[in-house]
C-alpha cells in the first residue's frame, strides 16, 4: 500500500542571510569579524558564518550613516555623518554619545583602552577620554585627509599620516609632534608595528613598503612591490608559509594591493619570501585601482582574512595558504537558486554578477564560480545526478558544471544563442537539456556522458514564442517540453521540438511553468496575479488560484503534486492545497519581489531570494504545529474539566478565574448568574477576590454581554460592583475611557427600555385601580 504524502501546513524561518558588509572598515577579534554596513556593525561568527548580533540602527531613509568604526572586542566606537561619536558595549547597547568637533567627516579611528584617537578630513588628529567624552588633545601637522592613525603598543605615542605621505609622530605627554618620517611619494595607506615594537612599516600607492626605526627618521629599508599596496599586516616571530619558515630575528609583513594577491615580505632582508598563487580575487581593471581593501591577521588561528573590493571576505590558513572560508558580504539582486550535490549539500545562487556563488548549506561558506563573462541569469540541477548543474547568462552561453568533492568546475559550454539566455532546465534522465533565450529560440542540448573536456552540442532549435521566453520545463518522462513567455501563452513541445499545443488564458505574461510529478498536469504562474493548472491531454484550464496581489514570479509543485508553493512580486511566498484551492499559509520576510525559489529533495527546506538581496531558509514546521495544537487541545480539555468540577462544587471564585483565563464569555455569564441566584451580596465578594488584570478581563467580557438585552441584568450588576471598586481604588483599569464609551450607549438604551416598562406598569396599575370600584361582582 502506497503511503499518502503528508500535506504541509506551515513553514518557519530557519535562517535569514542578508548583507552584513557593504564597504568600510573590517576588524577581527576572537572568532568575530566586525563588519561595517551603512547604519550598523555586523558581528559575523567565523565558525558558522552567522551574524550573531547587529550593533547600530536599522537602515531607513533618514538613518544616521556610519563613516567608520573601531573596536577592541569590548567596546565599539562609531563615527556618524551627523557629527556624533557613539560608544556601544559588547551587548550592542548604546552607552555614550558626543560630538566629534572635527570640521568635516572622521576618516580613521584608533582605540587603546579608554582613549580614542580620531583622524579627520580637517587635517587634525584628536585624542579623546572615553570616560568623560572630552577632547584632551588636538594634534596638528598632517596635511589633507588624515587616513592613518595608530597608537604605539607600549608608549605614549601616536603615529598619523595625511595626503602628503609624511608620517608624524606625536608624544602625547607634550601634545606636539616629535619626529616626522618622510620617504613616501604618495599617500600612506597603512602602518603596522613590528613584534619588537622598535620598528614600524608603512605602505602606499607609490608601490613601496618602507621599514622604519623609532627615533630614526631615515628609512631603514625601501622595498619595491611593483603594485599599489593598499594594506599590510605584521606577522609574528614564528610562522610558516609554503616553502618558507621565519627566522627569529626577522621582521615580516603580509601585503595586498591592486593585483589581488597576498605577498609575504622579509623587511630586514628587503625581499619577498612568498607570493600567493591561489588568489580568488580579480585584479584591479586599471593600474592603481583597488582589488583588496583590508587584510587582517588572527593570531590564535594563524589565519589571514582578506577583504576584496566587491565585499567578499576570504580566510586563508597562513601555513598552507589554503582557503578556509569565504563569506559574501553583500549580494546584489538574487535571480535564481538551486540545490547542488548529494543530500543537497550546496546551494548555488545567481546574483547580479558574472560569478555564481556556491554556498555550503550548513556553514554558508562560499566559493565563487568564475566562467561567465556577463550576468548569470538562471541555474538548474539534474534530478538524476545532483552533481550536475547548468547555468545561463547574458553572455549568450549555457555552461555545464560538475561538482567534484568540494569544488565545482565548468566542463562544457553551449554557444549557439544570439541573445541573453534567461532560462535552462535538465531533462529528468540528464541525457539532454533545454534552454531559451531573448532571441525567442528554444534549444535542445545533448549532455555528454564524459564530463571532461566535453562540449554541448545543439540537437534541435525552434523559434518558440513571439516575445521573451521566461521559463522552460521537461515532463517526468522526458517526452514533453513546456515553455512560458511574455506573449501571455505557454506551449507544449515534443522532445524534438514539434509543437503539441498552446495554453491560452492568462491576461499577462507567463513567468513560470512546471509539470506535475504524478499527473498529466502543467502549472503556470503569471503577471496577472494568478496560478493556473492545465490538462496536458486536452490543453484545458483545470483550476485557477488567486491570492497574490502582484505578479506570481515562481511556482513549484510539492507534496507529490498535491500542493503548490508560489513566490510573488509582492514579496510573499504562499502555500496552496490543490484539492481545496485554499491558501494554507503565507510567508512574509522579503521586502521586495521574490525571483528565486528552491526546494530540497525531502521538501523539508525552502530557500527564497529576490530583489532585496536577502536569502531566507524556510523550515517545514508542520509536525511541530500539529504537536503544539495537540498539546493545546489536551490542556484545554483538562482545564474545561477542572472548570466543570469547580462549578459542581460551587467554588465560584476559582471557576470565574479559570473561565476568564480560558476566554469563555458564556461560561463567565453562567457563573455570574449562579452567584446572583445565591444572593447579590456574594457577587461583590467574588469579584473582590480577582486580581486587577482579571477584573479588566471581566470588564471587557461584561461590555460584550451588555450589548444584548437578555444579559443586561447580570452585566449591570457586575458593572456596578466594578465601578464601586473603581471609586474606592481597588480596581485600576487601563484604557477605562474606551471601555466606558463602549458600555454607555447600550446602558442608556437599557435604562430607557426599563423606564418605559415602569411607566407602562404604573399605567396598568392606575387603570386597574380606576376600574375596581365599578366592577360588578357576580355571585
TrEMBL record:
<feature type="repeat" description="WD">
    <location>
        <begin position="545"/>
        <end position="586"/>
    </location>
</feature>
<dbReference type="GO" id="GO:0034511">
    <property type="term" value="F:U3 snoRNA binding"/>
</dbReference>
<keyword id="KW-0677">Repeat</keyword>
<dbReference type="InterPro" id="IPR019775">
    <property type="entry name" value="WD40_repeat_CS"/>
</dbReference>
<keyword id="KW-0539">Nucleus</keyword>
<dbReference type="InterPro" id="IPR020472">
    <property type="entry name" value="WD40_PAC1"/>
</dbReference>
<dbReference type="GO" id="GO:0000480">
    <property type="term" value="P:endonucleolytic cleavage in 5'-ETS of tricistronic rRNA transcript (SSU-rRNA, 5.8S rRNA, LSU-rRNA)"/>
</dbReference>
<feature type="repeat" description="WD">
    <location>
        <begin position="181"/>
        <end position="222"/>
    </location>
</feature>
<feature type="repeat" description="WD">
    <location>
        <begin position="369"/>
        <end position="401"/>
    </location>
</feature>
<dbReference type="InterPro" id="IPR001680">
    <property type="entry name" value="WD40_rpt"/>
</dbReference>
<keyword id="KW-0853">WD repeat</keyword>
<dbReference type="Pfam" id="PF00400">
    <property type="entry name" value="WD40"/>
</dbReference>
<feature type="domain" description="U3 small nucleolar RNA-associated protein 13 C-terminal">
    <location>
        <begin position="640"/>
        <end position="771"/>
    </location>
</feature>
<feature type="repeat" description="WD">
    <location>
        <begin position="462"/>
        <end position="493"/>
    </location>
</feature>
<feature type="repeat" description="WD">
    <location>
        <begin position="587"/>
        <end position="619"/>
    </location>
</feature>
<feature type="repeat" description="WD">
    <location>
        <begin position="503"/>
        <end position="544"/>
    </location>
</feature>
<dbReference type="GO" id="GO:0032040">
    <property type="term" value="C:small-subunit processome"/>
</dbReference>
<dbReference type="GO" id="GO:0000472">
    <property type="term" value="P:endonucleolytic cleavage to generate mature 5'-end of SSU-rRNA from (SSU-rRNA, 5.8S rRNA, LSU-rRNA)"/>
</dbReference>
<dbReference type="InterPro" id="IPR036322">
    <property type="entry name" value="WD40_repeat_dom_sf"/>
</dbReference>
<feature type="repeat" description="WD">
    <location>
        <begin position="116"/>
        <end position="131"/>
    </location>
</feature>
<protein>
    <recommendedName>
        <fullName>U3 small nucleolar RNA-associated protein 13 C-terminal domain-containing protein</fullName>
    </recommendedName>
</protein>
<feature type="repeat" description="WD">
    <location>
        <begin position="414"/>
        <end position="455"/>
    </location>
</feature>
<dbReference type="InterPro" id="IPR015943">
    <property type="entry name" value="WD40/YVTN_repeat-like_dom_sf"/>
</dbReference>
<feature type="repeat" description="WD">
    <location>
        <begin position="248"/>
        <end position="275"/>
    </location>
</feature>
<dbReference type="Pfam" id="PF08625">
    <property type="entry name" value="Utp13"/>
</dbReference>
<dbReference type="InterPro" id="IPR013934">
    <property type="entry name" value="Utp13_C"/>
</dbReference>
<dbReference type="GO" id="GO:0030686">
    <property type="term" value="C:90S preribosome"/>
</dbReference>
Amino acid at each position: 500500500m502506497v503511503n499518502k504524502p503528508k500535506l504541509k501546513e506551515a513553514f518557519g524561518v530557519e535562517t535569514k542571510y542578508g548583507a552584513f558588509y557593504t564597504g568600510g572598515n573590517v576588524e577581527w577579534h576572537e572568532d568575530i569579524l566586525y563588519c561595517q554596513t551603512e547604519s550598523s556593525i555586523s558581528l559575523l561568527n567565523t565558525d558558522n558564518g552567522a551574524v550573531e548580533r547587529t550593533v547600530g540602527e536599522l537602515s531607513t531613509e533618514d538613518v544616521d550613516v556610519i563613516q567608520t568604526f573601531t573596536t577592541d572586542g569590548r567596546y565599539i566606537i562609531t563615527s556618524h555623518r551627523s557629527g556624533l561619536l557613539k560608544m556601544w558595549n559588547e551587548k550592542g547597547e548604546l552607552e555614550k554619545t558626543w560630538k566629534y568637533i572635527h570640521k568635516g567627516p572622521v576618516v580613521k579611528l584608533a582605540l587603546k583602552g579608554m582613549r580614542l584617537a580620531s583622524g579627520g578630513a580637517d587635517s587634525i588628529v584628536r585624542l579623546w577620554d572615553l570616560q568623560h567624552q572630552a577632547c584632551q588633545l588636538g594634534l596638528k601637522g598632517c596635511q589633507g585627509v588624515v587616513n592613518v592613525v595608530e597608537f604605539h603598543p607600549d608608549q605614549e605615542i601616536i603615529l598619523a599620516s595625511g595626503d602628503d605621505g609624511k608620517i608624524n609622530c606625536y608624544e602625547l605627554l607634550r601634545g606636539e609632534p616629535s619626529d616626522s618620517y618622510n620617504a613616501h611619494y604618495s599617500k600612506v595607506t597603512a602602518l603596522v608595528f613590528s613584534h619588537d615594537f622598535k620598528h614600524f612599516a608603512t605602505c602606499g600607492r607609490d608601490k613601496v613598503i618602507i621599514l622604519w626605526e623609532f627615533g630614526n627618521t631615515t628609512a631603514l629599508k625601501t622595498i619595491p612591490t611593483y603594485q599599489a599596496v593598499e594594506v599590510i599586516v605584521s606577522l609574528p616571530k614564528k610562522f610558516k608559509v609554503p616553502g618558507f619558515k621565519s627566522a627569529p630575528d626577522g621582521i615580516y609583513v603580509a601585503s595586498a594591493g591592486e593585483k589581488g594577491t597576498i605577498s609575504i615580505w622579509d623587511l630586514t632582508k628587503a625581499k619577498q619570501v612568498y607570493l600567493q598563487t591561489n588568489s580568488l580575487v580579480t585584479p584591479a581593471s586599471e593600474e592603481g585601482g583597488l582589488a583588496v581593501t583590508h587584510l587582517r591577521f588572527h593570531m590564535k588561528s594563524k589565519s589571514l582574512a582578506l577583504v576584496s573590493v566587491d565585499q567578499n571576505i576570504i580566510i586563508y590558513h597562513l601555513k598552507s595558504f589554503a582557503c578556509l572560508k569565504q563569506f559574501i558580504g553583500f549580494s546584489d539582486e538574487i535571480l535564481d537558486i538551486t540545490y547542488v550535490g548529494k543530500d543537497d549539500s550546496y546551494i548555488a545562487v545567481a546574483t547580479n554578477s558574472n560569478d555564481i556563488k556556491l554556498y555550503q548549506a550548513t556553514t554558508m561558506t562560499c566559493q565563487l564560480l568564475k566562467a561567465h563573462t556577463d550576468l548569470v541569469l538562471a541555474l538548474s540541477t539534474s534530478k538524476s545526478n545532483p552533481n550536475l548543474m547548468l547555468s545561463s547568462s547574458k553572455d549568450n552561453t549555457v555552461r555545464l558544471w560538475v561538482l567534484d568533492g568540494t569544488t565545482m568546475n565548468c566542463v562544457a559550454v553551449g554557444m549557439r544563442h544570439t541573445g541573453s539566455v534567461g532560462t535552462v532546465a535538465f531533462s529528468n534522465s540528464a541525457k539532454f537539456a533545454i534552454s531559451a533565450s531573448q532571441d525567442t529560440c528554444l534549444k535542445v542540448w545533448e549532455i555528454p556522458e564524459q564530463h571532461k573536456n566535453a562540449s554541448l552540442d545543439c540537437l534541435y532549435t525552434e523559434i518558440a514564442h513571439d516575445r521573451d521566453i521566461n521559463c522552460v520545463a521537461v515532463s517526468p518522462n522526458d517526452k514533453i517540453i513546456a515553455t512560458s513567455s511574455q506573449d501571455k501563452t505557454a506551449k507544449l513541445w515534443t522532445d524534438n521540438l514539434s509543437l503539441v499545443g498552446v495554453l491560452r488564458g492568462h491576461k499577462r505574461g507567463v513567468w513560470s511553468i512546471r509539470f506535475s510529478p504524478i499527473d498529466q498536469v502543467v502549472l503556470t504562474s503569471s503577471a496577472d496575479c494568478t496560478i493556473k493548472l492545465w490538462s496536458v491531454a486536452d490543453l484545458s484550464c483545470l483550476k485557477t488560484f488567486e491570492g497574490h496581489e502582484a505578479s506570481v514570479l515562481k511556482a513549484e509543485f510539492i507534496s507529490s503534486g498535491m500542493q503548490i508553493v508560489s513566490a510573488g512580486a509582492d514579496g510573499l511566498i504562499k502555500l496552496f492545497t490543490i484539492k481545496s484551492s485554499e491558501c494554507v499559509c503565507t510567508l512574509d520576510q522579503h521586502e521586495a519581489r521574490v525571483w528565486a525559489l528552491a526546494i530540497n529533495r525531502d521538501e523539508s527546506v525552502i530557500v527564497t531570494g529576490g530583489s532585496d538581496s536577502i536569502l531566507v531558509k524556510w523550515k517545514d514546521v508542520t509536525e511541530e504545529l500539529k504537536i503544539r495544537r495537540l498539546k493545546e487541545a489536551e490542556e484545554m480539555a483538562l482545564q474545561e474539566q477542572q472548570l466543570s468540577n469547580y462549578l459542581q462544587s460551587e467554588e465560584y471564585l476559582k471557576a470565574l478565574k479559570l473561565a476568564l483565563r480560558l476566554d469563555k464569555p458564556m461560561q463567565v455569564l453562567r457563573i455570574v448568574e449562579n452567584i446572583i441566584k445565591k444572593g447579590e451580596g456574594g457577587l461583590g465578594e467574588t469579584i473582590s477576590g480577582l486580581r486587577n488584570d482579571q477584573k479588566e478581563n471581566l470588564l471587557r467580557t461584561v461590555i460584550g454581554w451588555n450589548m444584548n438585552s437578555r444579559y443586561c441584568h447580570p452585566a449591570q450588576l457586575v458593572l456596578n460592583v466594578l465601578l464601586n471598586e473603581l471609586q474606592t481604588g481597588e480596581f485600576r483599569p487601563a484604557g477605562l475611557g474606551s471601555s466606558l464609551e463602549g458600555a454607555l450607549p447600550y446602558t442608556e438604551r437599557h435604562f430607557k427600555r426599563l423606564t418605559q416598562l415602569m411607566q407602562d406598569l404604573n399605567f396598568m396599575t392606575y387603570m386597574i385601580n380606576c376600574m375596581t370600584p365599578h366592577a360588578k361582582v357576580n355571585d
